[in-house]
Design a protein that fits this description.
Oligomer: single chain
Helix content: over 70%
Order of helices and strands: HEEHHHHHHHHHHHHHHHHHHHHHH
Number of helices: 23
Shape: elongated
Length: 573
């Protein structure tokens, strides 16, 4: 089933990519309306939008999905429910397709909720307590966004149609559209895990690694960014845009800082996803939606490759994810670690790899824009942190000697996994330049002084050096101060957000519920309700029992009383 799914998705991807080039070069757009059912004067119409953006994004999603399914053929080979896994992944991709091509709020909701539901099924795939908890956190966090989406659909009744694309620009200054914009931003923030909804994203690492490669690159977490790209008109020069800029900048900073204190390989990559999502959201909130889309696509390529390489390493390390137990992997797994290093360097923005073209352009546009110092600092400091944790990861996994048991079976002989990774390796090297020439055929004129031009490079070099220094054994005191318990606990736990979002939210309602249960359900309600009724019935039953038990004596007594009553009655009259 893996091979068939791979071939079908790959062939569709090639066709969609060719169509997207045609639509992009011709500035062409197709709007389809399919009447699903017509009954009397009512009709249900499915609307589909094909433009260069939706077709290009779909081709990238299908490329990554097809290679992930091919990769899963070996990675999940020991799983007895392999076909169920592939079916879930295909349904996941189908939901994403529906979301991408829909200009209608109702059909977007189908894809949006499909992503939420199937992501829950995938997160709890291994069926243990940890994955159940992670699944509930993921599902319930996303439900907040789903509710916001439903409220936005209700507000759109003001316009008479759910095809928002028709009147988005015309009505952008009306109060109804501002409310809809606020609800859309809330929905996108939950799906793309911005502060304060960030805690579910690292928890979703409980899913199998191929799912993480798909979810964290091009599907679930990017759905919110893609939605806001479609609604980008509502963010321009508005309070919503400024608020989103602040929150996404803080998300980028928080995730970059947290990744430097983390030792779980998959969680480090998950936090890097969170950091890049913050970067996409922040540049989108400034009005540069094409740049956000460009980074969305380049990030999808190297992040999927990063997760695939991490999966290969975890497989060879007997399912250990602790980077402190790794070391010298380049000797034992040269091909996998080469792919891993290329993906890591693309994430850092190494010149002429995929990530460089989008990240460098974003930072130069930020330098050229009218922006406050705090946001400027968040952009560049977060970029430095990205390079810092990437070099820390390379230091722990590639240098020195292997730290795990002497009996190990490290090898590079997973040829199916390697073939899956090699497809993304090529795209991670050339994808950025190809997309840059396609999306921006006329280059941006960015005129900056020399020190501003070199600032990005300087920040990256400093970040890389810091990543090396805080990991190096010789700087024990610096390492010790960085690993101070309270500091590392605060930064490593994403500013206590997982605790605030779980215990913090549920603690008060649970205590209140316990109090109500104790004083009302087991107190007054019981005393005046069930218990009182029970006591009354007991008393009545006892009296009835007494009456029936002494029935002859009572009958004779009543007979005497009756005769007495009659006799006294006759005497009176």
């Amino acid at each position: 089933m893996c091979s068939i799914s791979f071939l079908i998705l790959f062939s569709i991807m090639i066709n969609l990519f060719i169509f997207s080039l045609k639509f992009l070069l011709s500035d062409y757009c197709i709007f389809l309306e399919w009447e699903v059912i017509s009954l009397n004067s009512s009709s249900i119409v499915m609307t589909i939008l094909f433009d260069w953006m939706s077709l290009l994004f779909m081709s990238f999603v299908l490329l990554i999905a097809s290679l992930v399914i091919y990769y899963s053929k070996e990675y999940m080979s020991g799983d007895i429910n392999m076909n169920r896994f592939i079916m879930l992944v295909l349904m996941f991709v189908l939901s994403m397709m529906l979301l991408i091509i829909s200009p209608n709020m109702i059909s977007i909701l189908l894809g949006w909720d499909g992503l939420g539901l199937i992501s829950y099924c995938l997160v709890i795939y291994f069926q243990n307590v940890k994955s159940y908890n992670a699944g509930m956190l993921t599902a319930l966090s996303n439900r907040i966004g789903d509710v916001a989406f439903l409220l936005a659909i209700a507000w759109m009744l003001n316009y008479g149609s759910w095809n928002y694309i028709f009147y988005l620009e015309l009505m952008k200054n009306s109060i109804e559209m501002e409310v809809i914009g606020g609800l859309m931003v809330l929905a996108a923030m939950t799906k793309s895990a911005q502060i304060p909804f960030s805690s579910w994203l690292p928890a979703a690492m409980a899913a199998p690694t191929p799912v993480s490669a798909l979810v964290h690159s091009s599907t679930l977490v990017t759905a919110g960014v893609y939605l806001l790209i479609r609604f980008n008109i509502l963010l321009n020069n508005s309070f919503l845009g400024q608020l989103l800029l602040l929150l996404s900048g803080l998300t980028m900073f928080m995730a970059g800082l947290g990744a430097n204190f983390e030792f779980d390989l998959k969680k480090i990559i998950a936090l890097s996803t969170l950091s890049q999502l913050g970067l996409m959201m922040s540049i989108l909130s400034m009005g540069f939606y094409k740049l956000a889309f460009f980074h969305l696509l380049t990030h999808a390529l190297f992040k999927a490759l990063l997760f695939m390489c991490a999966g290969a390493i975890i497989h060879n390390m007997q399912n250990s994810q602790d980077i402190r137990l790794m070391g010298g992997l380049g000797v034992y797994m040269p091909l996998s670690t080469s792919c891993f290093n290329v993906a890591n360097l693309a994430l850092c923005g190494m010149p002429f790899l995929a990530g460089f073209y989008s990240k460098d352009m974003i930072l130069e546009i930020v330098s050229l824009s009218y922006i406050n110092f705090f946001s400027f600092f968040l952009y560049f400091f977060s970029t430095g942190l990205t390079v810092c944790y990437s070099f820390r990861l390379i230091y722990y996994s590639m240098t020195g000697e292997l730290n795990c048991g002497s009996l190990n079976m490290l090898s590079d002989e997973g040829w199916i996994m390697l073939r899956g990774m090699s497809g993304l390796l090529i795209m991670s090297i050339i994808g950025g330049s190809i997309l840059s020439w396609l999306i921006f055929p006329t280059p941006y004129m960015i005129c900056l002084p020399m020190y501003m031009k070199l600032l990005t490079l300087f920040v990256c070099i400093i970040g890389g050096l810091m990543g090396y220094l805080i990991s190096h054994v010789s700087l024990f005191h610096l390492n010790k101060s960085f690993n101070n318990y309270l500091v590392s606990y605060f930064f490593g736990s994403m500013w206590f957000m997982p605790y605030i979002c779980t215990y913090g939210i549920i603690n008060f309602p649970l205590n209140l519920g316990g109090l109500v249960y104790k004083s009302f359900d087991q107190g007054w309600s019981e005393f005046l309700g069930g218990q009182n009724l029970y006591n009354s019935l007991i008393k009545f039953s006892n009296w009835n029992f007494f009456f029936h038990n002494n029935n002859l004596k009572i009958y004779l007594l009543l007979f005497v009383l009756w005769i007495t009553f009659l006799f006294s009655f006759f005497l009176l009259f």
